[in-house]
Amino acid sequence: MSEKYVGQTVEIVYLDQAGYITQRKIEVKEMRGNTVRAVCLKTGAPRTFRMDRILAWQVARTA
Q1: pTM of the full predicted structure?
Q2: pLDDT score, position 4
Q3: What Cα–Cα distance (Å) separates residue 62 from each residue in 6, 8, 52?
């Protein structure tokens, strides 16, 4: 994932620390090192994701 996605809504497939795979729609706030800081659009909560655990991503389509 590139820094050009900061400020955009992205859908990700993520492997969490416990080994569970989830699909999330996030708004990317910042990228630093191996982390993506974002807001989960389902919960409205701030989240931090490790880039090496993002299995797939795409820019979210707007309806």
Answers
A1: 0.85
A2: 87
A3: 16, 11, 26
Q: Does domain 3-59 have CATH number 2.30.30?
A: yes
Q: Minimal CA–CA distance to 57: which of 18, 21, 24? A: 24
The C-alpha atoms of residue 36 and residue 27 are separated, in whole angstroms, by 10
Q: State the Cα–Cα distance between residues 35 and 29, nearest whole angstrom.
A: 11
Query: pLDDT tens across 4-18, in order?
Result: 889 999 999 999 999
Query: What separation in angstroms does the CA of 41 have from each of 10, 33, 38?
Result: 10, 23, 9
User: In 3D, which of 7, 24, 14, 22 has the Cα closest to residue 55?
Assistant: 14
